[in-house]
Amino acid sequence: MNTREPFDTYRSKLSSGEETCEARVGAYLSVLAERQTLNAFLCVFGSEAHEQARAIDVKIAAGTAGPLAGMVMAVKDVLCMKGTITTCGSKILEHHEAVYDAAVIEKLRDADAVIIGKTNMDEFAMGSSNENSAYGPVKHPLDETRVPGGSSGGSCVAVAAGMATTSLGSDTGGSIRQPAGLCGIVGMKPTYGRVSRYGLVAYASSFDQIGPFAQTVRDCARVLQVIAGHDERDSTSARVPVPDYLAAITGSVDGVKIGVPKEYFNDALSAEIRRALETKIVILEAHGAEIIEVSLPHSEYTIAAYYILATAEASSNLARFDGARYGFRADGAKDLTEMYTKSRSEGFGAEVKRRIMLGTYVLSAGYYDAYYKKAQRVRRLIQNDFFEAFTKVDCLLTPISPTTAFKLGEKMSDPLQMYLSDIYTVSANLAGIPGISVPAGVDAQGLPIGLQLLGKQFDESTLLNIADFLERTHS
Ligand code: GLN
User: Fold this and answer.
1) What is the DSSP code (8-state) at residue 440?
2) Mean pLDDT per 10-residue run, the chain (475 residues)?
3) Domain boundaries in the chain?
4) Is 152 part of the annotated catalytic residue set?
5) Which residues, at least 6 apart from 164, have a Cβ–Cβ distance to it below 8 Å?
6) Catalytic: which of 129, 175, 237, 299?
7) What one-character DSSP code corresponds to residue 450?
8) Which CATH number applies to 7-227?
9) Cα 223 to ligand 1 centre (Å)
10) Is position 16 annotated as part of the catalytic site?
11) If you ran DSSP here, which 8-state letter would residue 212 be given?
12) For residue 334, how far is its CA from the centre of ligand 1 (angstroms)?
């Protein structure tokens, strides 16, 4: 069985009875066992998945199955699933058992998806390479000496290596789009507010969004269809109607206006990636799309604004992990203050501590105006740049990462270098707009190159349509 086959391809085999969901689960579990060195999963629900699949096969035969019946999914370990351990890739939550289901988990179950396991990730979703997990790094499926990208590396690799049909990740500054790009699959960050964050452990609440990884754009659209929509348990979830995403995929880009922001094709970008994107631009133009150069003048401030605001929010969100309420508590403390200090010092990893310190600093009384407040203002300017561009074009086409997958360890000693690999992705989270990552070829070493499309708020449809076109049209 080809476990990298898209759901769209094998769906008909399920309804005709030629294949079963249970057999699919079996096939994914064997790839998972064969490729354990990738370190993509933190926990696997083998027997539960088999049991669920059997029940779904009965529903398929009876014609009563939900829209995702037959889809086997992996979910990032930052999503709460009742009765299962939710670690967020951190030692501080090593034994933390979730007491309720995240909204997206409920929705997947209602749609008859099978959840096969929870995936490895950078600790509290902080990272760009998936080397910050307390449970070891995730490896790139094509070259295990390289990073798969982060922070949703496990969810990405689960799909890229054929261990699940699709998966869920979270994207605060690129954590879905960036690994998808480095591993050559599709990954989407929906508009802020499109998908409920209820049950998503918060990193930076005004940036975080949950989204799908998939082999194809159509599969991505199917998952988004199920997880999108208003939820009263998340006060930032939007009351915007959810369109039919598959119906939005028309196969044509004729007349679509696509903006190319000149600041994103800067010196940081590898020449091979630039060439791959230029090839795609030529194809789009040949099929009737109008390509327009646009400017996002505040682009040079995106990394600084993002790392000030995201760390500020993180320092506040992570205050709850104090040794008293959740998970890990250090031994041997003499009093309460020492218990807090020891638990946090021993429970958090280096990158998380670095960010708590930075975030606390930019929020502190003497520095709030100079850093936090200033960064909020810059955030608005960056958002305005996008709104201005979207008065002229329907979407933007950009790179995802400045380079293809880099070596494990290459950027670990220099956090600033690591942060710079997010240069093309964090702006979408600052502006709250949707973005999708779609494969755009390979470099000379055969490593995947990703292309990013950014859209207007709540206009995931346009992105899915163009991404689908790019996926299927090679000349
Ligand atoms: N690399 C970025 C960071 O470390 C984004 C992470 C994410 O999207 N979760 O903050």
Assistant:
1) E
2) 94 92 98 98 97 97 96 98 97 96 98 98 98 98 98 98 98 98 98 98 98 98 98 98 98 97 95 97 98 98 98 97 90 95 97 98 96 98 98 98 97 94 97 98 97 98 98 86
3) 7-227
4) no
5) 28, 72, 73, 74, 116, 117, 158
6) 175
7) E
8) 3.90.1300.10
9) 22
10) no
11) E
12) 36
Tokens 């997880």 locate to 227
Question: Looking at ligand 1, which residue's alpha carbon is closest to its atom 10?
Answer: 126
Tell me if 421 CB under 6 Å of ligand 1.
no
Residue 308 CB less than 6 A away from ligand 1: no
Q: Annotated catalytic, 295?
A: no
Three-state DSSP class for residue 265? coil
3-state DSSP: the chain helix, strand, coil percent, rounded to 5?
A: 40, 15, 45
Nearest CA to ligand 1 atom 5: 173
Contact, 337 vs 325, CB < 8 A?
no
327 C-beta closer than 6 A to ligand 1: no
Is any atom of ligand 1 closer than 6 Å to the C-beta of 151?
yes
Find residue 448's DSSP bridge partners.
Answer: 442
Which of these, 263, 215, 260, 225, lies nearest to 246 by C-alpha position? 225
Q: Does 162 sit in the ligand 1 pocket, CB within 6 Å?
A: no
- The torsion defined by the Cα of 330, 128, 98 and 38, in degrees rounded to 10, comes to -90
